[in-house]
Amino acid sequence: MKTKYSKNNYIMNLGIEILRMILCFWVITFHYSGIKNKRKYKILKTFYHVPTFMLISFYFSYKAFFSNDIIKYKKRLERLLIPYIIWPIIFLLISTSYNSIKIKKLIIILSLQYITGYKNFIILWFIQMLLFLGIFFQINIFLFKKQSLFILQIFSIISYFIQYKEINYRIFFHYRAYLRSFSHIAEMLPIAVTGLTLRNIDLFKTLSNNKIKSIYFSITSLYFLYNYNVFDQFKGFPYSGIKQNIAGICLFISFYFIPFNSLKNRIIINFIKAISRYTGGIYYLQKIIFHILRRIKSLLQRPFLLCFIIYILGYLICTVFKKLFRNNKLKYLFI
């Protein structure tokens, strides 16, 4: 399996497929592993998973933004908008089947959900950021053409400025949680721009002749970021600061250069491809599956088993419904 280095023709390699799977499970354990385990295991309260997802997403979306290919950009919007609109409705239907909620209240909940990406289906704030930043970037590219990436990099610097000056924190700290979700704009924008920038400079082509050194320095950097209070000297929200961005870059580089290209066994390659599928669908389904499984008290007492079951059930559901809707845009709910 070869990885192409043309700016306009990148192939996601097996290392990144595995990283996406790990990040997806990391998100699930962060949500459902329990307060005691978060206190016990530092990695469960380390916020590198979402920034790395954001970095990867915009890195591989580079062509959709800069190629002037309307079809590619339209497909990206459909892939995000369909889950963003439909999953909150499905969750409301499931979660309110045992309760009588007035139509007016349901409309209010859905309206707040779509505006904030957070109200009752919290995990969709990330999709909201992908949508909002994608539209903002596209407008910027349309207006500034060749200088657009430079303009976006300036916005990144401004975003870090308002984070480190604690402006972002002071603006949103006193609001309710679903309104505080807007604080993520300043946190995610620099990470998204970093993804576009790394693709623009052909980072992996530059580093390809020094893969071992790249992995070594990335892992070493992660060690210091994880074990020491690097850059953490200001008040902010979970994804604040350049630390999250650097950690995402290091994880990205480390997994990108894992030498799966040397694998000749098609069975192993196909197995890795198979187990790392549907991370998007599993991400969407986690809350619904948990809502159903939480009635099993014995599972709540074994949170890591619960997280594993959530992942496996999500995978199985996505497998079935992806095949069912393979010729329909509803497949975007499960991939």
Walkthrough of the structure:
This protein has 335 residues and is mainly α. The chain has one domain. Helix content is 70%, strand content 0%. The protein has 18 helices and no strands. The longest helix is centred in the N-terminal third of the chain and has 26 residues. The radius of gyration is 20 Å and the shape is globular. The protein starts with 13 loop residues before the first helix and ends in an 11-residue tail after the last helix.
Computed Rg: 20 Å
Secondary structure tally: strands: 0
Taking the sheet with the most strands, its summary is:
none
Which strand-content bin applies to the residues?
Answer: under 5%
Q: Give the CA-CA distance, first to last residue.
A: 22 Å
Level of helix content? 55-70%
Give the H and E element order: HHHHHHHHHHHHHHHHHH
As for the number of domains, it is 1
